[in-house]
Amino acid sequence: MGEIAGYPVRPGYFEDFGATLLPVGVNFTVHTHHGTSCELLLFHKGEEEPYAVLPFPASYKIGDVYSMIVFGLNIEEFEYAYRVDGPSNPREGLLFDRKKILLDPYARAVVGKHAWGEKLEGNYRARVVKDTFDWGEMPQSTRNMSDLVIYELHVRGFTEDPSSGVKHRGTFSGLQEKIPYLKELGINAVELMPIFAFDEEINAREVNGTKLLEYWGYNTVGFFAPNAAYASSEEYNKEGLELKKLIRALHDNGIEVILDVVFNHTAEGNEQGPSFCFKGFDNNIYYMLTPDGNYYNFSGCGNTLNCNHPIVQQMILECLRYWTVTYRVDGFRFDLASILGRNEDGSPLDNPPLLRNLASDPILSRVKLIAEAWDAGGMYQVGSFPASRRWAEWNGRYRDVLRAYLKGERWESWSAAWSISGSGDIYGGYGDDYTGNYAGYNSCVNFFTCHDGFTLYDLYAYNNKHNEANGWNNLDGHSDNRSWNCGAEGETSDPEVLKLRFRMIRNACAVLMCSRGTPMFLAGDEFGNTQYGNNNGYCQDNEISWLNWNDLEKNRGLFEFFKYMIAFRQEHRVIREKLPDAVCGMDPIHTHDTDAERTDIARDAMTFCVSFAGYDLDKGKDDLVYIAVNTYWEDVRITLPKVYGRVAWHMNVNTWGNGEGKYTWSDEEAPFIQHDFIMKPRSVVVFTGRV
């Protein structure tokens, strides 16, 4: 025991990074490799000057780790931060400044701002969190990746618009109020855009009288802390409680939670950016630096985390373990994940240790790991991400090819057929055990839309992006959208254009839900949400990005179509995974053009078909699904496969409709189809075969 600044102290638990509440006090543990000394700062709430400064004695340091237990602290009465001294040599990447107040890299709660849009005053600090949340006997999900239907959403944008009708708009509680809606829709996984502590006020600016913020949240301040502005009330020393209640409620309703995590860069930016955390602890360890001490920028956001340095690897691994254990999340989607495979000099690694360690970690063994398999530095790894049979990928080729093909770019027919049937040409073939756990079909997350790009409605309402509101002269955002406005750019009252647009949306939905792989779509696509042609709404905290729930009633028929297609997919295992061979003799997967007796597709085919067949052991019968895609602007006759026995084909989905607004049929009412069928222009039809 000793005494520092009037507090009884003793050496702490050196392996427990961050601040940990103990029955007798608080354990503070932090590390710095190049730093020469460290001070713990204690603040009263809201005050900028510390009321106590506790230097770590030399005897409280082992290796590069400082650890101290401070007795007699009431966690409700203080906030904390650090100061670290050391050499200053920018060309060597050393930026130590003993005057800088630094946020704990392992902070469980970040202090300095709470309300959304509130500007940081002073410095970031941390609070000690008391975790008493009871998860009960809730088991960890064992649902296969291929069984998920993923719904990507922004916590604030999902309910911030008054039309959402929730009490706590733009918060975790507001999202929880919408769980009955999610259940009705039928999705079983939500992918939350970044919820780690971030500062939406960083880079805030005004364009034509509108304040623009870092709305999406891809600028992490603290990796271990939830974003305080997403809580409906301030959670003093219980930060994360509202998020935990949300996750438990989602789990109680059969919905998994996947977090979008950003380990490729931080909010500290480049040479002109602030220094409030990692730069002050060990700048040349946490960031990739050029030989002259500047920042590599493979993220496109100013800096790049040095993910394959052992110190950074350890932090990322401990972070993911923390969210898995303390928040019970079910998976992680890694933003610009190819950066995780870069060496310290930026070069790609053949077998990145971080990716291997995450894939084999025992705590993470059952969580989903999903990679955005590219980065802003030009590395593109779709189909070649170092998967270790554990990583799934956002299938960027699926998005690009099927966007192009459905709007009539016939030369994509081969790739489109491969994509619907599971992208086996880039992910491999079947597994041997029929479980769907082979890397081929368990690694493929199919999507048309995500937060980055057009909404599904805008995909068929705009030929060109319209990002003028972002203030960059419409130079930001992707230009290669493979979109089609169906005859009129933007808003229109032309009934024929609108009819075609909604048919194209139904086409995309039907194809997505009948494709092997894991489907994902953007929140609001199911009722025609628009961003008015803005395909890069990262800065738009307004009606451009918020969901307008009035469109749900306006486009109720579209919602019902999505709802039907999700249920249809869940009903037919053969879409999701390889089953034992079908008794009727059909091939497990068959692709062809308009004639089912042919086995090839013309390079420029405007129409093709894909069939899935297998024997469902649970149901004791064959499961047969046949999807036909016609991108031609005229009627096309197709012939259906011949099958053994008394199997007959029935039409469950026709995106053209019956002329009276009906596009789907239950098994009981599904029309029987003879050997051939005439498809209407630009339509998708789905058949099932049964006795």
Automatic annotation (TrEMBL):
It comes from the Bacteria. One of its GO terms (biological process) is carbohydrate metabolic process. GO terms for molecular function: hydrolase activity, hydrolyzing O-glycosyl compounds. CDD domains: AmyAc_Glg_debranch, E_set_GDE_N. Residues 152-569 form the Glycosyl hydrolase family 13 catalytic domain. Signal peptide: none annotated. Pfam families: Alpha-amylase, CBM_48. PANTHER family: GLYCOGEN DEBRANCHING ENZYME. Belongs to the glycosyl hydrolase 13 family. This is Glycogen debranching enzyme. The lineage of its organism: Bacteria, Bacillati, Bacillota, Clostridia, Lachnospirales.
